[in-house]
Amino acid sequence: MAGLPAVAVDQSAVVVRGNFNPAIFSWNWLLDQDLVSAAQEDTFSTELITADVTIFINGSVRCQVTRDTFQVETSDIGEIERLRDFTVGVFRKLAHTPVSALGINRSVHIPVDSMEIFHAIGDAILPKNFWSSFLRSPGMRTSIVLGLRPDTYAGYVQVGVEPSYTVPRAVYISHNDHFGLKIGAEISGRDDPLFLTQHQAVEPSAKNVEIALNILAEEWNQSIARAHDAIERVWLMANQSSPQGQERD
Amino acid sequence: MNTGTGSTLQSGNPTTPGSTLSSERPTFSTPLTGSHVRVRRETDLVSHPNVLSESTRDVDHATEATSVKRRLASGPISSEPTEPYLIDGLEKWEGIVERIYSKQFSARLIRTLGGDSEELEAEFDSSLVASSDRDLYTEGAIFYLTVRTVVNNRGNRHRTASVAFRRSGRWTSADIDKIESDIDALTRAIADVF
Asked: Is the pTM of the predicted complex or chain greater than 0.80?
């Protein structure tokens, strides 16, 4: 792969769905559990801590916990393992917390040199011949493709492409590795009736914590590599279709 | 088809209608156009990678690693880029600290991203260990090495890297008992196979 050019924002996140008590996530509790070190006190800030939502920032890692979602994220690719380790540490301690799903996500915002290239990438993802027959200057707002999981877990892999609304004239590519916290039914392909229900929600249960921990321990590297590969492939395909890419060819 | 969008565990483009968590984030504010279009406040962790964060320990490791037995990436050594650049490679390695010396430590590493799962041994300057990771810096500790090759707009190549040590929380005697129990069960299962 040729690599990613000029990534303006590169964000990774681990998200867990379940039933949480946000107020637990205080500096003192985290310190007591050795999930932070005393030396991090200067770079740790609590933005909000209530019964409904807690938000804190620890170095380059941001954590937000609501009653139904635990999320840690960073925009430093060198820190993404901390997301995994912190999540593992938290749920080893909160082993009786009902959880239902786990997401390992990465997204990038890639600026492009011109509007011509910007639109060419959109046209490569979603050709406009049909849409132009009845829409004036159609543009792709979003394109999301779901694939079956490459392992035996429930869930799916989702890749999204759309214009960035954070970075001017940039393309946003996201990879969402969604694990339902159970072993899923085997789905043979798109014609399988179960294909339409692959995203079916899993009921929150404390028994699922161990599944989540196993995924983070055993599937992490594959997930990170999958996201990297998917984003590179989408970029390469779209960019090769642009005038700039065609000139290189 | 977009069957799963409404339930995805996704973060990222804050304006995406389908990004469920985006709409839940209280730090997103100031609608731009339409009800779904929101922007992040500066306090959000959406930093710009072409301006390396002061809070991270991104350094040019090549200048500090004392005797890397095998080069992690090729290219001349220089200071951090301070202008827009292209990411021209990303490698991730997982390492274990083998020996700690007065000013260096040796480690065994295995690549987890950016190539085959190659193994190598290397020595690093101990100053690479962040002060917040000092309590984790012991022989046997697990750490992660991220190596990036970037190209600035004059075509100069730079290698940057960062080291982060694994912190996975306090282990209780109950945790250790469970691990030992799991190992026993696994050992019995393997013995049954053979």
From this structure: no
